[in-house]
Specification:
The complex is a heterodimer of chains A (about 210) and B (about 90).
Chain A: H1 22-26, H2 32-40, H3 44-66, H4 69-85, H5 96-113, H6 142-160, H7 164-175, H8 180-187, H9 191-209
Chain B: H1 7-18, H2 24-36, H3 38-55, H4 66-87
Helix pairs in contact in B: 1-3, 2-3
The chains are: A mainly alpha (about 210), B mainly alpha (about 90).
Chain lengths: ~210, ~90
């Protein structure tokens, strides 16, 4: 444990340069905020455009959070309903996607916290044998498909075992490709807290999934 | 020999390296470090494995009537607001 990572020296590799969150930079600057301002001013066609742009990302994010497609879609409907309902208060102080994922994360975490999945709501994505309802890839043999489904079950189990905030951070980092700063904005915490959440989550996943590697 | 990196820095580098989001020069620096650090090499291999397992987890297709349901809920919310506005005695005269 040596030099301060923020202080580069000629003799050492440049760890001081921050790890490049290029995924954040690569997110195209879009006109989401502009569209939302138009929604605020009563242009409903712009709301449809926002829905079309972000529908899949929000549903997929929530699906991976709550591990149930029907619940994910219901929560995603609520996300867009809230976007619409709060349109008159919208101020583009943050990126639109940050606001959107903040609403989605809030709803997802509440759902998990309330333990609604434990109150008799059967996971619709699980068959009677616990097999996950994933799209069957016709290029795989039956045997390969079984191995794949078993692997997937373990991945889902490992994700389900993460504390919910760590799960949210991993989903945003891995699948939505949000950078640390944006995840911190969504979760309303510091960037260092996000890193700590993520590194603990990945450490758990590495341990739980090591045997599948 | 132990790793020469601060733990938090190593973790950040390992995650970013596996995700291929390091800049080219930082990646080259880290690869030089990996040549001499077995601990980081092992963690990189494990992190890459996790990354590719997560890649295999595909989302399910979205229901074709999703948008319609959103607009239905908006319509319901709107009509509810109208009823509250129309019949609430607490509101000022209309």
């Amino acid at each position: 444990m040596d030099s301060d990572p923020m202080q580069p020296s000629a003799a050492q590799p440049s760890w001081a340069r921050r790890v490049n969150n290029s995924e954040t930079a690569q997110r195209l600057p879009d006109g989401d905020a502009e569209l939302m301002l138009q929604v605020r001013d009563g242009d409903e066609a712009c709301f449809t455009q926002l829905l079309e742009r972000h529908r899949n990302a929000v549903i997929h994010f929530l699906y991976r959070m709550v591990l149930n497609q029907a619940v994910a879609e219901e929560l995603a409907q609520e996300v867009f309903l809230r976007v619409y309902r709060f349109r008159s208060n919208y101020e583009p102080t943050a990126k639109f996607t940050t606001w959107l994922f903040r609403i989605a994360t809030h709803l997802g975490l509440n759902w998990i916290r309330d333990g609604r999945h434990e109150k008799g709501q059967e996971s619709l994505d699980e068959g009677a044998d616990g097999a996950s309802r994933q799209v069957h890839d016709r290029s795989r043999t039956v045997e390969q498909e079984l191995v794949y489904q078993a692997k997937l079950r373990e991945v889902r189990q490992a994700i389900e075992n993460l504390p919910s905030k760590q799960r949210a951070a991993v989903m945003m980092h891995k699948y939505e490709e949000l950078g640390y700063a944006e995840i911190a904005d969504v979760l309303r915490c510091s960037e260092s807290a996000v890193k700590s959440l993520l590194f603990r989550a990945y450490e758990s996943l590495r341990m739980r999934l090591a045997h599948l590697a | 020999m132990g790793c020469s990196l601060k733990k938090s820095v190593a973790e950040e580098l390992i995650v970013a390296y596996a995700a291929r989001t390091l800049s080219a020069d930082l990646e080259a620096d880290f690869e030089r470090h990996l040549e001499t650090c077995a601990g980081c090499r092992e963690l990189v291999a494990q992190q890459r494995a996790v990354w590719s397992l997560l890649d295999e987890w595909h989302p399910l297709p979205v229901s074709p009537d999703f948008d319609r349901k959103v607009f239905e809920r908006i319509a319901v919310a709107r009509s509810r607001r109208w009823w509250i506005w129309r019949f609430s005695p607490a509101l000022p005269s209309r």
